[in-house]
Amino acid sequence: MLVLGSTFPDVHADASGVPGDKIKLYDFLGDSWGLLMSHPHDFTPVCTTELAQAARMAPEFAKRNCKLIGFSCDDVSSHKGWAKDVMSVAKLSGDLPFPIIADPERKLATDLGIMDPEEKDKAGIPVTCRAAIYIGPDRRVKGLILYPATVGRNFKEVLRALDALQLAEKYPVATPEGWFPGDKVMVQPTLTDEEAKAKLPKGFEKKECPSGKNYLRYAPDPSA
């Protein structure tokens, strides 16, 4: 089962949208970030709206050096047929701009810990949840978002989280609630004021609290 910081496995699997219908994940990712997006089933309403939005936003993820990978327990033939519906809903021409891994035996989904035990298919077998798994260039899991099958993901939030993760990988900062690129960030509490001044040349400001503890330190977005 995946946890933050664990190494994501080098998955070798059947997949649509790649030569020979086979994917070797590490080769596919190269030195990029990766976002694995699992969904419960092909040809279902919520999943179709989600991947349609992912297709529309694929250029934004590409700008951030992040490759998208879909995933479900359907087979490759199903993925290929469904991809046409996804692109139609997205109002885009051409092929779906990312592969979809096929895991009909549910082995990989079980190993990754992304099965939804409460949601079952017509045969009564559990399906995959709606996961968004952020994989860094070092192949480690940088972030995990898990939703049940009944709740669709907001891909604008998925993209925002990627921005925050990439920023925190590069600078000793954390992003507050509702942060978007260009907004002020927080200095990580593990840094002393002296260390923060050295690592954040744009400086920072402290906000006083009734407790007298000066832990709220705001800094300009260092990437802006």
Automatic annotation (TrEMBL):
GO terms for cellular component: cytosol; mitochondrion. SUPFAM superfamilies: Thioredoxin-like. The keyword rRNA-binding does not apply. Gene3D superfamilies: Antioxidant, Horf6, Chain A, domain2, Glutaredoxin. InterPro entries: AhpC/TSA, Peroxiredoxin_AhpC-typ, Peroxiredoxin_C, PRX_1cys, Thioredoxin-like_sf, Thioredoxin_domain. Keywords: Antioxidant, Oxidoreductase, Peroxidase, Redox-active center. It holds the Pfam family 1-cysPrx_C. Residues 2-167 form the Thioredoxin domain. It comes from the Eukaryota. Transmembrane segments: none annotated. One of its GO terms (molecular function) is peroxiredoxin activity. The active site is at 47 (cysteine sulfenic acid (-soh) intermediate). GO terms for biological process: cell redox homeostasis. Thiol-specific peroxidase that catalyzes the reduction of hydrogen peroxide and organic hydroperoxides to water and alcohols, respectively. Belongs to the peroxiredoxin family. Prx6 subfamily. This is Peroxidoxin 2. It comes from Toxoplasma gondii (strain ATCC 50861 / VEG). The lineage of its organism: Eukaryota, Sar, Alveolata, Apicomplexa, Conoidasida.
